[in-house]
From TrEMBL:
Protein name: Superoxide dismutase
Lineage: Bacteria, Pseudomonadati, Pseudomonadota, Alphaproteobacteria, Acetobacterales
Native source organism of the sequence: Gluconobacter frateurii NRIC 0228
């Protein structure tokens, strides 16, 4: 299953607080990527956010991975986890009852 994880800075935290953990954070992200669990990652400067796309067995596995991130453990980032799924609404394109004759 795929999961979107949105990481945002906790209000009031300073760049110096983040800097102390960045090498460990990037190493952790790289290990997850090379293990095949983390599929994609993006950074947005405005608003500041990191987007991670995981492919893992279940939400509990993603939660364990996210809570092990150094910046999460240090209380510098908040995380939102969203399970991604198929888009069944596309089936309307093939529903003969909805297609005009």
């Amino acid at each position: 299953m795929k999961y979107l994880v949105l990481l945002t800075p906790v209000a009031g935290k300073t760049p110096d607080q983040f800097a102390a953990h960045m090498v460990a954070e990037i190493k952790h992200v790289w290990e997850s990527y090379t293990a095949g669990e983390l599929r994609e990652f993006y950074f947005s400067p405005d608003p500041q956010a990191v987007t991670l796309i995981y492919e893992m067995a279940d939400r509990a596995a993603v939660e364990r991975e996210v809570t092990s991130l150094p910046l999460i453990k240090a209380g510098l980032l908040d995380a939102q986890i969203v399970q991604l799924g198929s888009f069944p609404q596309l089936s309307v394109l093939f529903d003969k009852a909805l297609i005009a004759p």
